[in-house]
Specification:
28 strands, alpha+beta, five-stranded mixed β-sheet, six-stranded antiparallel β-sheet
Length: 555
Amino acid sequence: MIFNLMGWGRVGVGSLVALLALASCSDDWDIHYAPSTGDATSLWESISQESSVSNFAKVLKAADFDRKLSGSQAYTVFALTNDALSASQADSLVEAYQTQKAAGVRDNDNTVVRQFIQNHISLYRHPVSTQTNDSIKMMNGKYAVLTPTSVGGSPFVVTNQLHSNGVLFTVNNRVKYFPNVFEYLGIDHDLDSVFRFINSFSDYEFVESASVPGGIVDGQTVYLDSVMQMRNNILNLLGYINSEDSTYWMLAPTNAEWSRMVTAYRPYYNYANTVANRDSMQETNTRLAILLGTVFSRTVNPEPAFRDSALSTSALSYQYRRMLNADPYYIFYHPFEANGIFAGTRSLECSNGSVLKTADFRIDKRNTFLQTIKVEAENLVRQDTIIDAEQPLEVHTVQSGNAFYDKLSGNQFVELIASNTSADPNHFPYPTVMYSVPDVLANVGYDIYVVMAPVQAYNPYAADADTLPNKILCNLYYNNQDNKLQQRRLGVSVSTPGKVDTIKVAGNFKFPICSYGLSQPNVRLRIQSQVGRNETAKYSTNMRLDCIIFKPTEE
C-alpha cells in the first residue's frame, strides 16, 4: 500500500508508524474477509449441503430463497440449527407460507417470510471480530445487535463462514422478532379492525436503486433481487408507524370500541346521493375521524412535556396555529391523569415505540374532527357573490396600538361599502356578500355566528355618522339528500356599535348532508344590509365583517 507523505511534516514519527500499522491491519482484514479468499461455493450450496441446518434449508427453499442465496447479491445468513428448528416446526412454517401464498398474500406481507426468514438474513457481509459491536439491519427492516458471539442475543454455533456471495453463521436460538407499531396491529386479534383499515391502503413499489440487476434480456433489465417498498397514504396522515427509524406511541381501540365509534360517527359523513363514491367516502372518513389524533411521535413529545400535553401527529405546530389563526385541535392535556386519553390503556412495547390498547376510547371528538368552522371575511376564495358593494371589498388591518388589536380574528376584517347609485336615483343599494362554508358535517347541530367589527378598529377618530349600527338579514343555502338547493331565512339582526359584536343568527342548525373534503362546498351564508332609504340616519349601509363561525353544539 502506498501513502502520499507530502504534507506530513507536522505529524510525529510515532503517529505515522501507528497509521502504517493500522493500514497493515486493514490489509490483513481485507485479505481475510475478501470473497475470493473464502469458499467459492454460494451461501445456498453450503446451507443445502449442511445436515445440521436441513430444517432451516427446507423453509428457505419453500419460499424461493434458494434462488436468492445462489445469486451475486451479498447476504449474511444466521441459519438455525436443527436443535433450534425441528422438522415439524419447519413443516408448519412451510404450510403457513403456502397457505398465505395461495390466498394471494405477497411475500412482503407473508408472516413466514417477514417474521422468520428475513429476520435471520441481512443484506451485505457482516463478519465479526473480537471488536464487533454493531446494530445491523435485517432484510425485514428490523435492527439486531451483532457482537463477537451473538446476533440479537442468539449465540453463535459457527461464525464467519465465507462464501462467494456472503457470510454464514449458525445459531441455536431464533432471533427474536420484535414487531413495530404497524405490525403489532396486525398480530393482535383484538385490533384487527384498525389494522385492516390502515393496511387496505398499503401498496408496494419497485425500488430500482436497491434492487440487484442480473443482466439485459430482450432489451430489459432482469433483476436477481427485486426490492419492493411499501407505500401507504394513510400512514402519510397518521405517521410512519411502520418505520424502524422513528419512535411512536399509538392509541388503538379494540374491535368492540372501533365498531361502536364507526356506528356513532358514520351519520356525520352522509354525502348527497349524487356525490361520486359517496359510500366509500363515508366509510373512509368515518374511520379516519377515529384514527386521526391517535399517533404521537416521541421525538416531538419528549419527557416531561408529554406528561403535560400530548401533541399528536395530526396537530398543527404552535407556529402554524399562530400563522393560520387556528384552534388547537388534536392536542390532549394531562393525558396520563385519571380522565386523560391514556388512562386505563395497556401499553405494549414494540420495536419502534408502543401500542396503547384500549377498550375505553377517551379521545373527545370535539378535540379532533368535530371542529368549529371559521370563514375569514377577507378570504377571497370564500367570497362567493358580492352585490351593491364596491369591489374588491376593502380589507382593513388592526394596528398593534389599536384598542381592538388581537380582538378580531387574524387582526383583519373587510368593509362592504355601498355602491355609488347616483347614476340610478331609483335604485337604493343593499350591500350583500355571500360566503361559501367548507367541510360542514351532516347531522351535527351548528350555532351560526356573524362577527361584526367596529369602525374604531381601523379609525379611532371616526365621525358619529360612521359609528352607526348595522341591520343585517342572513339567509342560509344548503342542499338536501338529492343535492337539491334549499334556503332558510335566518332573520334580521342589529349590531352593537363600538364593539366586536358576535351575532348569533341560527342555533343548533343541522344539515342533512356532509360537504367534508368536497372541492365545491354546498353550504353558503348570505349577509345583506337591510337599511332602507329612510333609515340611513339610524343605521349604516356599510358593513364591517370579521368572520363567520359555525360552532358544533353537540355534547
